[in-house]
Amino acid sequence: MSAALLPWVHRISMVTLAATLLLVFGLGGAVTSTEVGMAYPTWPDINGWSLFNFFYGKIAGEFGVGASLEHSHRQSGALIGLLSILLVALCAAGRDIPSAWKKLAWANLALVVVQGLIGAFRVLENNDELGGVVHAVLAHGVVVLLVGLAIISSPGRREAAPQSSDAQSRRLVFWTRAGMVVLFLNLVAAATLRHKVGNFPAHLVFGLAAAGVWAGCGVLAIGLGRKGSRLAKNGRRALAAVTTQVLLGIGVWLLILGPGREWIAAPEARFLLEAILATFHLLIGALVTATATALAIEAAWRFREAAE
Amino acid sequence: MKGRDLALAGLLGAACLVGLFFLLAGSGSLPDRATGSRLTVAALEMDLGPEGEAIFARAVEEEFGTWAQPRLPSNLSLALGVADDEELARGRRTWRVKCLQCHGPTGAADGPTARMLIPSPRSFHEGVLKFTTTRAGIPPLREDLARVIRQGVPFTSMASFGGLPDSAVEELVSLSAYILVRGPVERRAAEALTGNPFGPEQAQGRVKEAAAHVAESWTQAREEVVNPLPPFPEKTAKSVARGRELFLSKRVDCAGCHGRNGAGNGPRVWDPESGSYLLRDLWGKEVRPRDLRAGQFHGGGRPQDLFRRVDQGIKGTPMNGFHEVLSPEEVWDLVHFIQALAQP
């Protein structure tokens, strides 16, 4: 029974991670981009309607499209909560499941619950500054924990052997750790900007620093890993995510803060384009967190001696 | 670590210090998504012509400043209870963070979120606030604005901003009052100027006259409060029955809009042929009469709130008041019936 559960922990953590990225970040990003977080200021119901109401058209007709969008974001959060409970249950059910898996599953569930409560605080107290910023940054914490659980529970990971460290591998371990710190500083800067209590220069400085560090880590990992190895793959993924994110960031800056503000006269079209770009910027940002975490864990695992 | 890594780490540390400096410096680059017109919608509806509009806009700015740097003539400051122009500037800063996304940069309800909400956010340019304690046609009190800001409008997207410090609420009240008076002042002055050529002096004179008129109406508003004082009459089976009779009667005809069972589906509401709502408010938005059975009242569900809605109506909407038609006792009967509908 216990051995049969091992692959399911990996599978469910991957499903939870995918749902978190696509649904929670996609819809949550759209909610913030269109500024409809307060489309209905009640929680967990919508002015008396249940959270588990799936008549999106009816909600949109009654309270507007914004309410429908916010409602679907809350539902996706509830889905992640249910999947996180399932992960904990799976880990608890297996005697041979490593304690590190259990710890990660419990930490993830705790963080998801905290996220739900912060979301409620943000709505009920109408606190977009502290509530919105903490909610946004901690969402990346969920991504980090889920990536961690997915990696350490993967079949390849269980069989992988540590490798001897050298100067280059020690560099990679150091810079991935530094990169995680800068990444989260940048997330704070980005969230404060999105929630109107920050400023663009802070996000610019931290964003460029994080992009530089992770691009460097990606190149270093590609160079260190054998062709087709997990290290090289993670390096390529991190590099691709960072490059896409920088390009999107330039696009968002051009349209919202830069000279592109004058390019599209029709306010409806501009609003839509801004919202789409900003949402994708947030979504790819979550992907950067995921790929960066994967690379950091991979590097730390491969070169354990270097890390010690 | 080699020298190159140490140098890079030093560079990263320096970048982080710079980033932290900016982060701690706080908000400084909020974009105004739309600059909006120099005038309110109320004035733009008048046909002043391009040249007249420019002269008029300058005259208005002489008295009221710009949207970014608002100011008030002294008589209006006094009538609105605005301490000084600095209070308006602080209110403007809070407005940009808390209100702009729905109500727009100038209060014209053209913020980016407005199109995604039902009911639509209020435009202040007509000078009308829907839920007030004052009689129909009378401006609101500062307390009315503060109540809406603190408590929100129940069952709509207008959330409570009760978490703001009292000083910030008062500053927002002042800025909201500023926007609320600009529309009526501009409309009155523009109406007086329409049809004849005019120069800067005439324009400024008319704006001053209109400002004095509006200041007078705000000053007198306190005398026009509808204040049903407790103890309220007791709700009895008889008073509910009398209220039901009134509800269905031709004299009041609540059922025409709210439907015979209070579901908000009366014959005057919906056009089955076009498949659309027939009623519109002052802002041209479709109006859906309340489903009274749900007990969800935008203007508040306390007895005195319902009394005011029945007695004075909801400003800017087809919901008329029945002050001239019903005695206070009859209004209370209707209130009891509405309460009974919501609590079967």
Give the topology, please.
The complex is a heterodimer of chains A (about 300) and B (about 350).
Chain A: H1 2-33, H2 56-63, H3 65-93, H4 99-124, H5 130-152, H6 155-159, H7 167-194, H8 200-224, H9 230-257, H10 267-302, H11 304-307
Helix pairs in contact in A: 1-3, 1-5, 1-10, 2-3, 3-4, 4-5, 5-7, 5-10, 7-8, 7-10, 8-9, 9-10
Chain B: H1 3-25, H2 41-44, H3 49-64, H4 74-80, H5 85-98, H6 100-103, H7 142-151, H8 166-193, H9 200-220, H10 237-248, H11 255-258, E1 270-271, E2 276-277, H12 303-312, H13 328-342
Helix pairs in contact in B: 3-9, 4-9, 5-8, 7-8, 8-9, 10-13, 12-13
Describe the fold and architecture.
The complex is a heterodimer of chains A (308) and B (344). In chain A, 79% of the residues lie in helices and 0% in strands. Chain A has 308 residues and is mostly helical. Chain A folds into two domains: 1-159, no CATH class; 162-308. In chain A, helix 3 (65-93) runs antiparallel to helix 4. Chain A is globular. Chain A starts with a helix and ends with a helix. The mean pLDDT of chain A is 88. In chain B, a hairpin with a 4-residue loop joins strand 1 (270-271) and strand 2 (276-277). Chain B has helices spanning 3-25, 41-44, 49-64, 74-80, 85-98, 100-103, 142-151, 166-193, 200-220, 237-248, 255-258, 303-312, 328-342, and strands spanning 270-271, 276-277. Chain B folds into two domains: 41-224, no CATH class; 237-342, Cytochrome c-like domain (Cytochrome Bc1 Complex, Chain D, domain 2), CATH 1.10.760. Chain B has 344 residues and is mostly helical. Chain B is globular, with a radius of gyration of 25 Å. The longest helix of chain B has 28 residues, at 166-193. At the A-B interface, helix 2, helix 3, helix 7, helix 8 and helix 10 of A face helix 1 of B.
